[in-house]
Specification:
The chain contains four helices and seven strands. The protein has about 100 residues and is of the alpha+beta class. The chain has one domain: Ubiquitin-like (UB roll) (Roll). It starts with 7 loop residues before the first strand and ends with a helix.
Length: about 100
């Protein structure tokens, strides 16, 4: 679904985080107002998602670390730990942990 308002972000959760979003009765995607950049860690805190439940953040389809700046108009998805091994390398999870 294309996002119309560039002063918002689309947020999704994968795996068990998807279930957490459903438990809070959030729509999929969750559309949030955003007028200036926020990091993935700040967004997680705003949504009350513990950082230990997030391994990486997809921003516009690319794996990013939790300190990556999310901009208005971005599409965001939180990914918890537990993605199977071969996919971790292919999706770029390993490289994001080496940047810290």
């Amino acid at each position: 679904m294309a996002q119309e308002d560039k002063n918002t972000i689309e947020v999704r959760g994968f795996l068990h985080l998807y279930q957490a979003f459903k438990a809070k009765n959030w729509p999929v995607p969750l559309i949030l107002p955003l007028s200036e950049a926020i990091t993935g860690a700040q967004l997680a805190a705003q949504l009350e998602i513990p950082l230990d439940e997030i391994e990486v953040v997809f921003v516009n389809g690319f794996v990013q670390s939790l300190d990556y700046p999310i901009q208005p108009g971005d599409r965001v998805a939180f990914v918890p730990p537990g993605c199977p091994g071969p996919y971790r390398l292919a999706l770029g999870f390993y490289a994001k942990h080496q940047e810290k």
